[in-house]
Amino acid sequence: MAIAKYKGRQVVRCGGKKVTPYLKKQFNYFKGCKKVLDLGCGEGRNSRFLQEQGILTHPFDMCPDYGQEWSALEWIPVPDKSMDGVLLNYILMFLNDAELENVAREVCRVTKPGSVIMVELDLVKSSRVKTAEHAAKLKRKFLKLMGTHTSEPWDVQHDTKLRFILKKRDMLARYTA
Question: How far does CA 122 lie from the centroid of its chain?
């Protein structure tokens, strides 16, 4: 893990050059995706992996080493309901409450029914997640925020202490099938 400064703000680089093992292991959840948003993409390791699988990625990070520059308090410059998936790998634990709320709102706005979200957390001393209890609290808070910003509910597809996958329920699918 590397710590750097960017525009006067401390930036933590958690990732390496290889795709995260969780994404690689749980990739089946993304197989039907055509477009995936990668928020907090870092140096682009997960975006590159998805691109190698034929998925168009939209990478964003506060430090534009790889993707487009973006702050967690900003609007995400992609159309409403245009994304099939979202990666939130090692980003939520560094967000304050206002940033977390905005990310939840924006993810709900840009995802289609049936979309998949992958979230990975880690215990990092310089973040808000220093213990497993902190991780559980942040996960509950994020899930609650996700539920308040959309009419389509999110179902937990896979869950471990520090990693989870959500799927946005397609409420119309059961009526048109």
Answer: 13
8, 61, 120, 128, 144 from 156: Cα distances, Å: 37, 25, 14, 23, 12
Segment 126-177, tens digit of pLDDT: 677 888 888 889 999 999 999 877 777 889 999 988 899 999 987 655 544 4
Provide the CATH topology of domain 19-176.
Rossmann fold (3.40.50)
CA dist., res. 86 & res. 59, Å (int): 10
Rounded to an integer, what is the distance from CA 40 to the centroid of its chain? 8
Q: How far is CA 129 from CA 15, 40, 78, 162, in A?
A: 17, 16, 29, 10
Here the tokens at position 122 are 């880690």
> What global pTM score does this model have?
0.87
